[in-house]
Amino acid sequence: MIKGFRGTSVVDYPGKIASVVFLGGCNWRCPYCYNVDLVLPERLKNLPDLPEEGILFDLLRRKGFIKGVVITGGEPTIWGRRLKAFLERIKYETELAVKLDTNGSNPELVASLLAEGLVDYLAMDFKTAPSRYSELSADFDPVEKTLELLRDLNGCAEVRITLAPGLVAKQDLEEMLPYLKKVKRVALQKFVPEAETLAPDFPRPSLPPDIVSSLADYLRKHLSAEILIRC
Ligand code: SF4
User: Fold this and answer.
1) Distance in Å, CA 89 to ligand 1 centroid
2) Centroid of ligand 1 to alpha carbon of 132 (angstroms)
3) What is the average pLDDT score of the chain?
4) Ligand 1, atom 7: nearest CA belongs to which residue?
5) What class of enzyme is it (predicted)?
6) Residue nearest to atom 6 of ligand 1 (CA)
7) Can you tell me whether residue 80 is helix, strand or coil?
8) HEC-encoded secondary structure of 156-195
9) Residue 34 CA, closest ligand 1 atom number
10) Is the confidence at residue 203, as pLDDT, over 80?
């Protein structure tokens, strides 16, 4: 399940220095995805499994310096009960704050993790206009439910929108707007053209800075959320 560990990050958990734990596997295949090694089974099998005990030891060793743990992927929620059991160990053995990154495909699990106090900060990727999720071979219904959970979190949550060429333009944001009402923080993430992507022919040019700024301004005009631009 655990395929990677970064001991210290200052950018992955808003307001906290954190460690990052990467879980392997994903139920989706977004063409612009950079996490090729963590998503494709034929690549994933080359990454060794890292033992939970070792990760918990590392977290405890860093405690005092780090204040949180980011659980990311791949898509962490595909691990269901195993994810829950791992988060229980993190919470009770280290008492660190936990941020969960998700594509929004498993609202039932996310709801139960939140209800049990196992997640302190939720980040969900909103990939394109709802009517275009079928282009990613993904279903928007569970994403909508996860967005509902996220809206109730009162600041301990964010929606991330990767500015993937051809998937996020103003008309897509227009369709996404109603789902972003009451969200407290929206982060626009720049697409990195140099990275390897799941679809090797995914269009490379990232959006020019003036277009990125105009999309951010558009969101600021229509939402009360904090709108961030991340590299
Ligand atoms: S971008 Fe996220 S949801 Fe999409 S394939 Fe990659 S890891 Fe999975």
Assistant:
1) 26
2) 16
3) 95
4) 74
5) oxidoreductase
6) 33
7) helix
8) CEEEEEEECCCCCCHHHHHHHHHHHCCCCEEEEEECCCCC
9) 6
10) no
**Ligand 1, atom 1, residue with closest C-alpha:** 33
Atom of ligand 1 nearest to the CA of 136: 4
Question: Which amino acid makes up residue 44?
Answer: L
Tens digit of pLDDT for each residue in 100-134? 999 999 999 999 999 999 999 999 999 999 999 99
- Cβ count near 48 (within 10 Å): 9
Residue identified by tokens 């039932």 is: 108
Lowest mean pLDDT among 122-126, 136-140, 152-156, 202-206: 202-206
CA distance 171 to 128: 10
Residue partners of 17: CB distance under 8 A and separation at least 6: 8, 9, 10, 65, 66, 67, 68
**Which domains are present in the chain?**
2-230 (3.20.20.70)
- Give the pLDDT score at 192: 86
Where would I find the H helices in the chain? 36-39, 41-44, 52-62, 80-89, 107-115, 140-151, 170-180, 209-222
Tokens of 216: 């951010």
